[in-house]
């Protein structure tokens, strides 16, 4: 299975990838590929747009129409692509630094417009490409090169932000729960509107080492042991959920989609579109 | 018709079908008119959350196959710079209109200035070349906008239309039919798409751009890349890429440059100015002519690349050169580079938010030459 997917969906001349041993970016990238493969979308109709950072390098490895943009701006580029040609399936690959810090404004406004793009955010709590600085999603008091005594910032709950901004599909998965992650991405891509999937990832090299999280296997196991399905979590007390990762679908609703709304407006104006 | 309106008319005539922008005076009419008109010509308009996103969206739209434009003024132009560099590096055709106002920073909203001459050339980081056009009338704003799209398609580059508040808001009676048939350059999809290399030097230093979704899958990145568009750290490839990005514009300069000349071909004074300032300069020329001076005007419409070949031919026949601009001296440096003889280039500047009057230009010229040439 994996070898067929590599054969079919990766630009083999670009491999091996630049990611460190033990990095989970490969798992998440493969989950995206599996989702696209399951949905049987032709490769020519898929556009993968990414920003800057470790995870954003994924676009270069993938054999789609790929656009590796500037730091934080992937969603704004993707908005241009999708709006110009709504027939394309547009998927954004981004990281927590890229999307939650420098790209936050584009993220909330794309959610507000409910434009039909799917954003997969690889969340590893740090900026990997620059050597492990704290990102807005680093758990409070965890360490990073720019938070040597522990981060005093509150960490950003990006799923809540997405919901608040109007995203119509919001889910969280992990690099351990691969089957579920593939399904969440599949549903996000199929969903008409702005979809956001947060993929909890591991960075053993910077976040793991500095916070004594053990080996890559230990870190994946930690994801397994500390993730709670949203349905199960609903029956638990808040104190029991302290420090846990709730996984599953948070929002899946229908609402007017941006490019369709524009088209409707054009039709209302009774113009013949070339 | 207003200058900003002429830009929109020209853009639609040139085939612009995607506009993304953010409100800022004195450019806002361009966004408003695009919002009004584009739905009727099969085009798309989107108001983005800021100028960074606007620039990003037009690059994305251009890659998806639509001719795209954004418009702004100084503060927004500053925000766009990183993505303008992306468009230069990834060779994505697009048009950026900067209706200049007085800066730096918020400056004096929104009084006229021409302070973005150097920013339009070097605003983004790294070695690159770029095309910058500056119209001096409403009619010319229309024509220049069409050429901006043509040049951006031909050379796969961002093109900046460097307007100023005076031209943007100026109303003049124009007959756009006067231009007759203007050639519009469209994207050509090559027959052999099997072996398509998006970054190979095929014609004019570039390869034709095949939009996303047409059956050719390739990578677009701001990283140094090979002919396939894939990132590389190979220094030879990097050298070749950067040289090509600069050469495709500098070596085709004679095809790109536009300028206008007026008045004497030789004499006492050669004025060099662009945009709205040249209107005051033309009036000053009339005045000086009456007083017996022999005056010529050289007005670059293409600011970058600067029409230096032409200037080299004409300037030696004049005794004194005056560069007149609404800033503390920017195009002056470029003229000074071209004119090697010392002491001949003088600048007449104004940067207080007020437009030049012909009288003050005349006075300043006389003051500078009172002890002879």
Automatic annotation (TrEMBL), chain A:
<dbReference type="GO" id="GO:0016625">
    <property type="term" value="F:oxidoreductase activity, acting on the aldehyde or oxo group of donors, iron-sulfur protein as acceptor"/>
</dbReference>
<keyword id="KW-0560">Oxidoreductase</keyword>
<dbReference type="InterPro" id="IPR029061">
    <property type="entry name" value="THDP-binding"/>
</dbReference>
<dbReference type="GO" id="GO:0045333">
    <property type="term" value="P:cellular respiration"/>
</dbReference>
<protein>
    <submittedName>
        <fullName>2-oxoglutarate ferredoxin oxidoreductase beta subunit</fullName>
    </submittedName>
</protein>
<dbReference type="Pfam" id="PF02775">
    <property type="entry name" value="TPP_enzyme_C"/>
</dbReference>
<dbReference type="InterPro" id="IPR011766">
    <property type="entry name" value="TPP_enzyme_TPP-bd"/>
</dbReference>
<dbReference type="GO" id="GO:0030976">
    <property type="term" value="F:thiamine pyrophosphate binding"/>
</dbReference>
<feature type="domain" description="Thiamine pyrophosphate enzyme TPP-binding">
    <location>
        <begin position="52"/>
        <end position="198"/>
    </location>
</feature>
<dbReference type="InterPro" id="IPR051457">
    <property type="entry name" value="2-oxoacid:Fd_oxidoreductase"/>
</dbReference>
Automatic annotation (TrEMBL), chain B:
<feature type="domain" description="Pyruvate:ferredoxin oxidoreductase core">
    <location>
        <begin position="268"/>
        <end position="361"/>
    </location>
</feature>
<dbReference type="InterPro" id="IPR029061">
    <property type="entry name" value="THDP-binding"/>
</dbReference>
<dbReference type="InterPro" id="IPR050722">
    <property type="entry name" value="Pyruvate:ferred/Flavod_OxRd"/>
</dbReference>
<protein>
    <submittedName>
        <fullName>2-oxoglutarate ferredoxin oxidoreductase alpha subunit</fullName>
    </submittedName>
</protein>
<dbReference type="GO" id="GO:0016491">
    <property type="term" value="F:oxidoreductase activity"/>
</dbReference>
<keyword id="KW-0560">Oxidoreductase</keyword>
<dbReference type="InterPro" id="IPR002880">
    <property type="entry name" value="Pyrv_Fd/Flavodoxin_OxRdtase_N"/>
</dbReference>
<dbReference type="InterPro" id="IPR009014">
    <property type="entry name" value="Transketo_C/PFOR_II"/>
</dbReference>
<dbReference type="GO" id="GO:0006979">
    <property type="term" value="P:response to oxidative stress"/>
</dbReference>
<dbReference type="InterPro" id="IPR033412">
    <property type="entry name" value="PFOR_II"/>
</dbReference>
<feature type="domain" description="Pyruvate flavodoxin/ferredoxin oxidoreductase pyrimidine binding">
    <location>
        <begin position="9"/>
        <end position="236"/>
    </location>
</feature>
<dbReference type="Pfam" id="PF01855">
    <property type="entry name" value="POR_N"/>
</dbReference>
<dbReference type="Pfam" id="PF17147">
    <property type="entry name" value="PFOR_II"/>
</dbReference>
């Amino acid at each position: 299975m994996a070898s067929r997917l590599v054969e079919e969906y990766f630009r083999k001349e670009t491999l091996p990838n630049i990611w460190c041993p033990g990095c989970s970016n490969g798992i998440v990238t493969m989950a995206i590929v599996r989702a696209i493969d399951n949905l049987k979308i032709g490769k020519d109709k898929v556009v993968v747009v990414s920003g800057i950072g470790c995870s954003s390098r994924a676009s270069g490895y993938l054999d789609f129409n790929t656009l590796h943009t500037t730091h934080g701006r992937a969603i704004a580029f993707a908005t241009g692509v999708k709006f110009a040609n709504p027939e394309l399936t547009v998927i954004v690959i981004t990281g927590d630094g890229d999307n939650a810090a420098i790209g936050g404004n584009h993220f909330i406004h794309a959610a507000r417009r409910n434009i039909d793009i799917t954003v997969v955010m690889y969340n590893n709590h740090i900026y990997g490409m620059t050597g492990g600085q704290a990102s807005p999603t680093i758990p409070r008091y965890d360490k990073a090169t720019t938070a040597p005594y522990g981060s005093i910032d509150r960490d950003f709950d990006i799923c809540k932000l997405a919901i608040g901004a109007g995203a119509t599909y919001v889910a969280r998965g992990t690099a351990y729960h691969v089957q579920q992650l593939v399904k969440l991405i599949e549903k996000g891509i199929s969903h008409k509107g702005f979809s956001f999937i947060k993929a909890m990832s591991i960075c053993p090299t910077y976040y793991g080492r500095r916070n004594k999280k053990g080996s890559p296997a230990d870190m994946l196991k930690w994801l397994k042991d500390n993730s709670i399905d949203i349905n199960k979590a609903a029956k638990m007390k808040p104190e029991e959920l302290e420090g846990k990762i709730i996984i599953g679908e948070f929002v899946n609703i229908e609402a007017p989609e941006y490019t369709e709304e524009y088209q409707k407006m054009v039709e209302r104006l009774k113009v013949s579109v070339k | 018709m207003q200058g900003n309106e002429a830009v929109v008319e020209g853009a639609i005539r040139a085939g612009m079908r995607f506009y993304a922008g953010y409100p800022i005076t004195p450019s806002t009419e361009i966004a408003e008119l695009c919002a009004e008109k584009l739905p009727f010509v099969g085009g798309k308009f989107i108001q983005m959350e800021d100028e960074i996103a606007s620039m990003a969206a037009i690059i994305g739209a251009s890659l998806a196959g639509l001719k795209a434009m954004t418009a702004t003024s100084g503060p927004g132009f500053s925000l766009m710079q990183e993505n303008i560099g992306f468009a230069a590096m990834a060779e994505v055709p697009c048009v950026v209109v900067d209706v200049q106002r007085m800066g730096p920073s918020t400056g004096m909203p929104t009084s006229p200035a021409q302070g973005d001459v150097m920013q339009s050339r070097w605003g983004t980081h790294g070695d690159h070349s770029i095309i910058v056009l500056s119209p001096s009338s409403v009619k010319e704003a229309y024509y220049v906008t069409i050429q901006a799209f043509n040049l951006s398609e031909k050379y796969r580059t961002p093109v900046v239309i460097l307007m100023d508040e005076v031209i943007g808001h100026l109303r003049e009676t124009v007959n756009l039919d006067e231009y007759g048939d203007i050639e519009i350059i469209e994207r050509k999809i090559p027959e052999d798409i099997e072996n398509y290399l998006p970054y190979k030097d095929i014609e004019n230093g570039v390869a034709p751009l095949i939009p996303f979704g047409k059956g050719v899958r390739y990578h677009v990145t701001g990283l140094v890349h090979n002919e396939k568009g894939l990132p590389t750290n190979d220094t030879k490839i990097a050298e070749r890429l950067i040289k090509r990005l600069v050469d495709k514009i500098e070596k085709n300069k004679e095809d790109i440059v536009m300028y206008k000349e007026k008045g004497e071909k030789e004499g006492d004074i050669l004025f060099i100015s662009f945009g709205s300032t040249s209107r005051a300069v033309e009036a000053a020329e009339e005045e000086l002519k009456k007083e017996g001076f022999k005056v010529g005007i050289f007005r670059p419409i293409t600011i970058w690349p600067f029409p230096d070949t032409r200037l080299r031919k004409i300037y030696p026949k004049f005794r004194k050169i005056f560069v007149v601009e609404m800033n503390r001296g920017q195009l002056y440096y470029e003229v000074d580079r071209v004119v090697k003889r010392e002491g001949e280039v003088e600048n007449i500047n104004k940067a207080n938010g007020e437009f030049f009057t012909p009288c003050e230009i005349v006075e300043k010229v006389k003051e500078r030459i009172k002890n002879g040439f």
